[in-house]
Write a structure and sequence with these properties.
6 strands, alpha/beta, two-stranded parallel sheet
C-alpha cells in the first residue's frame, strides 16, 4: 500500500475491524464481561493502528486517518469504502495454508466479490518491502477480462513496472481429441498472437 500510495500520490486510510459479538450472534444475551472484552479489543486495535501509522511517518505517504470499525469485517470495510469513496482496498489473505492453490480467506473473497472499488489482495507470504516490478495481466479474450487492462496499465506506468500479457485458451484437446488439437494449434496460436 505504501509503494502504491507514493507512486500515485494517494492518501492511505488505515482501517481495522473489531468484530462485535452482537453483530455475529444477534440473538444471544451478552453479559457485561463480553462487552468489557470488546472494549478492550477496540483499544488494542486503536493502539495497533497508531503504531502502524507511526511506523509509516517517514515513508512520504499521507495517512490522514486511522479508523477502528465494528461489525462483520467484510461488511464494515465495504460500508466504509463506499462512504469514503475509496478507490482501492488493499488487504492480506489471512487464510490458513490450504492444499487448494487459489484458496482465499473469507474476508478477502467477500471484498473481491462485493467491494465498490478495486481490491488488491497481498499474499501473507509477501516480502517485508513489497515492490511491484513485473505485472502479469491474464486475459481470456472476453470483454470482462479486458476491463483489467486500463487499471493495470496505469499501475504499471505509475510503478515503472514491466507488464506481461497472458492469453489463456481453453484446453481444446479435451474437447476434440489430441490429433485434431495438434492440427488446430498453429491456427489458435496465430489468433492468440494477433489478439495480444
Amino acid at each position: 500500500a505504501v509503494e502504491l500510495s507514493r507512486a500515485i500520490e494517494a492518501e492511505i486510510l488505515l482501517v481495522r475491524v473489531v468484530p462485535v459479538l452482537k453483530s455475529i450472534a444477534p440473538t444471544l444475551e451478552i453479559p457485561w464481561q463480553t462487552r468489557k472484552a470488546e472494549k478492550r479489543q477496540r483499544r488494542m486495535a486503536e493502539a495497533s493502528l497508531h503504531t502502524a501509522r507511526s511506523a509509516l511517518i517517514n515513508s512520504n505517504v499521507r495517512i490522514n486517518r486511522v479508523e477502528v470499525l465494528s461489525g462483520r469485517p467484510a461488511s464494515a470495510i465495504i460500508q466504509y469504502a463506499t462512504k469514503e469513496c475509496v478507490d482501492l482496498i488493499v488487504c492480506t489473505n489471512r487464510s490458513s495454508v490450504s492444499s487448494r492453490p487459489w484458496h482465499l480467506g473469507t474476508v478477502a473473497l467477500k471484498l473481491l466479490r462485493n467491494a465498490p472499488c478495486d481490491t488488491l489482495v497481498v499474499s501473507t507470504d509477501a516480502r517485508e518491502a513489497l515492490t511491484f516490478t513485473r505485472i502479469l495481466i491474464a486475459l481470456d479474450g472476453s470483454d470482462l477480462a479486458e476491463r483489467a487492462l486500463v487499471p493495470a496499465v496505469s499501475l504499471s506506468k505509475a510503478l515503472s513496472a514491466e507488464m506481461f500479457l497472458l492469453r489463456i485458451t481453453p484446453p481444446i484437446a479435451l474437447a476434440i481429441g489430441p490429433d485434431e488439437a495438434e492440427i488446430l494449434t498453429p491456427s489458435i496460436k496465430g489468433q492468440v498472437e494477433r489478439y495480444l
